Amino acid sequence: MAHLLGAENVHLEFPTRVVFDSVTIGLDEGDRIGVVGRNGDGKSTLLALLSQRLEPDDGRVTHRRGVTIGYLDQRDILPEGMTVGQVVVGDLAEHEWAGDAKIRDVIGGLVSDIPWDVTVDELSGGQRRRVALARLLVGDWDVLFLDEPTNHLDVEGIQWLAEHINRRWSANQGGMVVVTHDRWFLDAVSTDTWEVHDGVVEPFEGGYAAYILQRVERDRQAASSEQRRQNLARKELAWLRRGAPARTSKPKFRIDAANALIDDVPPIRDTVALSQMATARLGKDVVDLIDAGVSFDGTMIIEDIEWRIAPGERTGILGPNGAGKSTLLNLVSGKLQPTSGRVKTGKTVHIAVLDQQLADLAQFADDRVREVVARKKTSYVADGKEMTPSQLLERLGFTSEQLSTPVKDLSGGQKRRLQLMLILLDEPNVLILDEPTNDLDTDMLAAMEDLLDTWPGTLLVVSHDRYLLERVTDQQYAVLGGHLRHLPGGVDEYMKLRAAGTGGGTASAAAAASAGRPDTAGSSAVAAASGLRPAGAAPAAPTLSGAERRVVEKEMSALDRRIGKLALDRKKRLEAFGAHDQTDYEGLGKLQAELAALDAEVEQLEERWLEVAEQLGV
């Protein structure tokens, strides 16, 4: 594969620490790299170095001649006074961008609900993020650097972005480096993972799940190596004291398969024990919503909600923005009274909410962390063991030095962890988490999930982080069309329902549909060419103009040729597989990997072929 860019013996030092020390790393055509690491270890700095936005103190960063780079920063810096349309498509004439399948796809996936003629100064933070991302993705780039691209995206937006990245280039073209805490997204798009830690960048093959397996194996080998070193040291000491060394057999070491790594690991949660403990703390009644509904100014937000929350229940709540998820949780927590039906709360229920605002910490802004902790309980029980608040803080990633830091000087992720710890020390028996993943890196998310695994109470989670929802909850519900719907098939079922337009008829969706967004008011060409439509509306029949139809037909012909070529390549690989020496496991493994890559590319092309065929009405 052709080289795109790389860093050679790069050294970067800030006044207080060394960020990178003799780092050598490269990006080739076809690489899709996910970057993980603790907050503050240098993930965003690595992107800035590789894109040549930041110069290293030593070493060098090189780019292939003519390579084009697109960069999404964490901050959404948009030109003031310009409309959404001007920012996204620039000076392109309407017929040019409306006839471009890629641009239509980006508009439909990211900004179809944002008024096209509104200035970006009037947008919310989430809308600005989506506009900035759309502005980047409509361009043609050899390399994309994405710094937290999933921020402010809902579950559907994140899935769309993953699918877009996977079909943006062919298998051996283009390059991408992404920093994100969304582990599902990392698994969906990454072919390799870079872990940034302690001044180095350590590469791993595969996405997040493969990275975790390799990391566990690496740590296991390191522990085993240290144990052997200590054993050898003891034997050396015995020889020095006794004289001639005893004859010993050399220890044998075997790298176990991935499944063997988790054979002796118990289930992540003892659901029976947790349910018994939750019942003991809560009794049989928690919160019952009986035919509950809420309306504002005559507009029904949610209605006819029948939900009897059980002791120890661990539920994830899904739904598009504006569907009524927060309204539902406010009913459960008692912050909001129903306008119809009723809410019954158990006598022993103690509800705590981890919200997005961190408002609870404002009163402690000038206090040091240890002072805040000292006002709470002196102990907390986790995993059946009694822990001090300091031990709990350590489990959540705080160092002893950070205990002396004023709360106002903590990072966003540290404040989030402190907020969670203070809530747990109050020992609620119902915990509501509203977007708890904000500002947390993957290691801290894992630590938080580990802590929640032993928490004996009822847990309700609203999050766009698909990995977190599936990890800490046992069942999922969706707020769709103002109603609460159980999802036996989990997040996958929710995505199918949304793709089918089920439950899209909320008041907010209706308002968005008439707010001047591209599919209804911004452009008649987009309405015809892109197929964008309000959620829940029936698909419109294809109405392509002559020029647009020729463009789409040309794409279909190219897809047919490419699929046919890959079919021949696959046949040759199968023949080579059959003729290969069956005892050469390494060679067979390479052939198998090539087959898998071909199959994956064929699947992507076939999905695109179906989309094109639908546009043509085939």
Task: Give your account of this protein's structure.
The protein folds into four domains: 3-208, P-loop containing nucleotide triphosphate hydrolases (Rossmann fold); 212-246 and 254-260, no CATH class; 271-499, Rossmann fold (3-Layer(aba) Sandwich), CATH 3.40.50.300; 546-616. Strand 19 (475-480) and strand 20 form a beta hairpin. It has a six-stranded mixed sheet with strand order 5-6-7-3-8-9, with helices on both faces. The chain has a six-stranded mixed sheet with strand order 14-17-18-12-19-20, with helices on both faces. The protein starts with a strand and ends with a helix. The longest helix has 35 residues, at 208-242. 43% of the residues lie in helices and 20% in strands. The protein is of the alpha/beta class and 618 residues long.
Task: Summarize, please.
Residues 588-615 form a coiled coil. Keywords: ATP-binding, Coiled coil, Nucleotide-binding. With 618 residues, this protein is α/β, with parallel strands linked by helices.
Largest sheet: 6 strands, mixed
Poorly predicted runs: 239-265, 504-542
Radius of gyration: 27 Å
Strands, count:
20
Going by CATH, the homologous superfamily of the largest domain would be P-loop containing nucleotide triphosphate hydrolases
The helicity comes to: 40-55%
Distance between the terminal alpha carbons, to the nearest Å?
37 Å
What structural category arises from helix and sheet content?
alpha/beta
Number of domains: 4
Q: Do you know the CATH architecture of the largest domain?
A: 3-Layer(aba) Sandwich
The average pLDDT is 79
Number of helices: 22
Q: Output the CATH topology of the largest domain.
A: Rossmann fold
State the shape.
globular
CATH class of the largest domain: Alpha Beta
Q: Numbering strands along the chain, what is their spatial order in the largest sheet?
A: 5-6-7-3-8-9
Q: How big a fraction of the residues is strand? A: 15-25%
